[in-house]
Specification:
three-stranded antiparallel β-sheet; globular
């Protein structure tokens, strides 16, 4: 089945094919069944995941023309290799961080696939506004991501899959900061793309992978946090226990305020 619309990568009006995000050979098969919850339903249910909808046929959408989809297949093979390595890393690993050596990897191919997934997630307007991202994905060599784009990565052990299009994020620090971010997680990986000046120490920056050539295979020392995603808000990596602790803490504070009244 195809649909005629604007391709999320090349930007041309063409017949679009179904793009699996992540690639279908990374446990996102056509016969897969996933459960999804609408963000507003999640709010109304006070942070529970009761109103779940079943998604059949794999996660993705009609986002890429055939030519761009075939282009992405070159990167998807490398992404699958990383997925297999990550699953082996997470087996029996109860730590909050992993460090080690990844062998025989093509860093830029992996990064191009991640960037392509963000293009599919955020619609054709994203590549139109960020032509350097489009050039990076479509050119085999010699192109890098624009300085304003930073892509972070972590190992993900969540049972929930979350997808957040480009949105504003306020972090109430001193001073408070405003970020523009898009996130995507599908075990064993999670990714966050920040637009603008951003430095997020909780995650591992992989933007520098664009310095490698397409055919450059390396062994790389690497360090990755192992995080959970239990709520649909961006940049919230609390464990289930931490969320429950915060919930009880808020109830106690609310009770104290009522007494003072």
């Amino acid at each position: 089945m195809r649909r005629t619309s604007k391709c999320c990568l090349c930007g041309k009006i063409k017949d679009l094919s179904f793009e699996h995000v992540p690639p279908k050979n990374t446990y996102n098969y056509r016969d897969s069944v996933f459960e999804s919850i609408d963000f507003m339903d999640w709010i109304q249910e006070k942070g529970t995941w009761k109103k779940r909808k079943k998604i059949r046929g794999g996660l993705g959408a009609f986002t890429l023309c055939i030519g761009c989809n075939n282009l992405g297949a070159r990167y998807a093979r490398e992404y699958k290799e990383w997925v297999n390595k990550a699953h082996n890393i997470l087996k029996g690993n109860n730590n909050r961080e992993w460090s080690g050596i990844l062998t025989d990897i093509y860093p830029v191919r992996f990064l191009k696939e991640v960037a392509l997934m963000f293009c599919s997630l955020n619609g054709p307007q994203f590549a139109e506004k960020n032509p350097n991202v489009r050039n990076f994905i479509m050119s085999k060599d010699g192109s890098q991501l624009p300085p304003k784009i930073t892509i972070y990565m972590y190992l993900n052990t969540s049972k929930f899959i979350t997808r957040t299009g480009i949105t504003g994020l306020i972090q109430f620090e001193k001073p408070s900061k405003v970020y523009v971010v898009s996130e995507y997680n599908f075990p064993p990986f999670g990714f966050a793309m920040y637009i603008g000046n951003a430095k997020y120490d909780k995650l591992t920056d992989i933007t520098w992978f664009d310095e490698y050539g397409y055919d450059e295979k390396v062994d790389m020392s690497f360090q990755l946090p192992i995080l959970e995603r239990n709520v649909p808000f961006p940049a919230d990596y609390r464990t289930s226990l931490e969320i429950e602790y915060d919930r009880i803490k808020n109830q106690v504070e609310e009770f104290k305020n009522q007494i003072n009244i």
